[in-house]
Structure formats: structure tokens, C-alpha cells
Amino acid sequence: MTELPDDLKTDEIIRSLASDRSTTWLRSTPTEAALPDLGAVMDSAAARFDRFAPWFATTFPETSTVPAELAEAFPEAGGGMIESPLVPATAAQRRLDELFGSEVTGQLWLKRDDSLPVSGSIKARGGFHEVLEFAEAVAADHGLDAFDPATYSSPKFREIAANHRIVVGSTGNLGLSIGILSARLGFAASVHMSADAREWKKTLLRDHGVDVIEHAGDFVEAVEAGRASAEAAENTHFVDDEDSVSLFAGYSVAALRLERQFAAAGVTIDERNPLIVYLPCGIGGGPGGVTFGLRRVFGTAVRCVFVEPSQAPSMFLGVRTGLHSDIAVQDIGLSGATAADGLAVARPSRFIGPTIGPLISGFATVPDEVIRAGVGILHETEGIDVEPSATAGLTIPWRTGDAAAESSSGIHLMWLTGGAMVPDDERIAYVEEGRGLVERIGSNASAIFVD
Ligand SMILES: *Cc1c(COP(=O)(O)O)cnc(C)c1O
Q: At what positions is N6-(pyridoxal phosphate)lysine found (predicted)?
């Protein structure tokens, strides 16, 4: 354990986190912080997804046509789009009003990344992008036309790809995204899974021909093992979830898409109708990339709140202390363990906090019980089944209510981060368990800090 400096030991927000209480920190001065100079990587990631759309459309038949829910926002798209619907959630909003005995003003909306094609989680954005970027680099290195989607179905490319390996450490979903896509492109792939990873995710990857290496330790250990195995190896690319600009760029593209989806829905986002986005957070890469993109697109009309399990608030702790990846949740006596396996990360990204930290408008922690209950609420009200991690933010607007008066109007957007790949038996178990917890959701006390 790192010995905490005295000023941190007395910080009331850190003490609240350390006591395992639900804690909210709203940074009331919506920062005018300058955007880091990453707009170019975001734009080139968007162009890369466009280039690969024809390949996706032929390789994954489920993406070959643009689903009706997306057609209005993307009339020119011809299939192969990795995108998810944006939908209002009035039934869930009414139910939460009832459970909390208070109404939030503004409207609850859902971003359905739980239903992203091919790998069923937000990791399809970042993870796919990094694999595609590597594929283009390999193609170009070998004199192939990297910008022609047909290249990636050619025997020549597949022969070359078989001689290259992609390695990643994961709590599950990043491994799924990277593993599935790597295998389809013909790359060898190794996924180092932490103890939190669900068994079915390992089985599914093995079925795709991916090497799955299981670790008894946490995510940090799985990443370390992956990095070490890739270091000396030839023709090997390590996807570093602790420090990857390519993952980040892939996530950020979501904002360009969201802008068009709100426009198609006839919703204007501006200072009078602000967008408050609740992002389930693990290591910070996904929410960090999305936040950058959203701030670039919507400016100060958007506020992003990162939501973490109360035993694993790694980004919250890193940004609040300013120590970023030099501090882990164990340093304040928390376990890092949570039922929200996608968020089971004890030490934050080296890259996101220092770069994106000033753009984050708030942090919140939630106990596992509330996260699980969220699965039940979405099932009962919207008929949507997600994995527990995806629901982390669902109750936050009701929690902050008056304390964040300015942020209780506008659009409250819950970023549902995963779910479509969960096998039926587990899905049914999550729903059953969640439904049993719904009635208790309003009784969760929390500490709110505004500064
Ligand atoms: C990975 C993941 C997140 C958070 O992304 P990070 O980059 O780890 O912060 C949230 N929800 C789900 C379901 C995930 O798999």
C-alpha cells in the first residue's frame, strides 16, 4: 500500500470513498478546460470505421443492412456500421421517480451500446478500432492496398495475418472484442483474462480459436502478463488498455454518431437543454474517449459523469488525488472486487486521467446491490436486458436531485455499456436477482460533494 499524504487522509471525499459509502463529487465549475490535441486521431478513427464498413458488411452478415433504428440518423450508410440506437426511456424514468419518491426534470435516454453488433459492448468501439489500425499497418508493411476493404478478405492478407499475433489483458469484454475481430481477420490472438472474467466469455473466445490465458489475479496482473508475453515476441501487437491512444480514438467516434442521432430525433443539445451523460467506468478508457469526443462535439453543453462500483472507484480516486495510476483502490482499504465485472479495475489508466481528467464533470460510486437492481428495472420497464456493469449510472440523477439543480434538467443519457452477448441462463439469473432488489433501490444513502 502506498502511504497516503496527510492532506489526502483528511480529504472528506477520499474518506467517504474509503468508507465504502455511495459518493458523488460534482465539479460545479464546468471546466473551460482546453481540449487535448486529439481531434485528428478521432477523425482518422471515424474514417477508418468508414473504410472497413464494406468488410464488416460481408464478414458479419448481421451488419449487412443498417437497422431501422439507425437509418434515419445515417441515411447514407450502406451497412457494416458498428453503431447502437439512442432511445428515450420514459417508462424507466417514471419507475425511478416512483422508487425514489421524487421526480427528476429533464428526460431519461439510453445509449444502447449493450446491443452493438458483433461483440455486444462498448469495447466494440475501442477494441475494434485498434485491431483495424493494426491490420492496416500490417497490410501496408507488406505492400498490400491498406485502404481497399477487399484486401482483408484476400488469401494473401490472411496468410500474412496468420503470422502476426494480437495480445490483450482484459476483465472480459475487451478480450471478446479484440479476440473475435482478430480471429476474423486471420490474426493469431492471445487474451489474458483476470479472475473476474466470466467463464462464458473464455469459452466463446476459445470457440473462435483465440488462446485464452487465465490468471488468478486481478485486471492489473492480467495486463502485466499480457504485456510481458508480447514484449520479446516478434510480429506481436499488445493492446495496452492502460495507455492506448488507438482504443481512445475508437471510443471517441461515438460522439460524432450521437450528434447525428440527436439531430435525427429532433433534439437540440445546447446550454438550455444540456446533455448529462452517465458513463460506467472501469480503467477509464471507454468513458474517457467518449467524453473527449462529446466535449469536442457539444462543447460545454455536455457534462460527463463517470460512475464506478463503490469498491472499485479507480478513476475517481486517481483524479481526486491527482495521483492517477500511482494510486490503487487498495491504498484506501477497498477491495477492487465487484459484481460489475466490466468495472472491476483497481488502478486507473495512465493516459486518461492526466489527459481527460479536467473534462470530467463528476464522479459517482454505486454499491453492487444498486447496480444489480438496475438490471431488474430496465427489464421490467423497457424490456431491455443488460449486464450489471451497464446500469451503474441509472440512479445518479435521482441521487443528485437538488444538489445539482442545474444538471437535473436537459437530457440524462445512460450509456448502457454491455449485454447482448450474455448467454440466456446468465441473463435470466441477472434479471431475477435484479428484480428482487428493485424495491430497495431508493434507500441507498449517499454523500454528495460539490466544488
Ligand atoms: C469495459 C467496460 C466499461 C468501462 O470501460 P473502461 O474503459 O474499462 O473504463 C463499462 N461497461 C462495460 C460493460 C465494460 O465492458
A: 123
